[in-house]
Specification:
globular; single chain; mainly alpha
Amino acid sequence: MPGDIARAVALFVWARAHDPLPPDATAEEMDQRWVDSELVRDFQRAVDHDHAVTADNLAYTLLIAAARHRDHPDFRDSWLAWTPFGDLAPGSTADGPAAAEQGHDAHG
């Protein structure tokens, strides 16, 4: 995944993790925001220390975090083209475009 895409996804996830919580937010929602913040911090540390493989792996994980916010106006559908994981919708088994290009077959 290109660095500019990974950074854009990381910024998006960071912003969503710091959006105001609704008054009825659950402990799980609060925990998920903390996890997302830590994920972005880990990604930035990997980039800062030139740990390219770690940064790339974390960037793919950031895509999963970003996909939870697909309805947000700042979400870019074009980011999903970079995932080898297929459709990031919960429960989906569809391969994504990057998986097809890399010859991955999630179904065996």
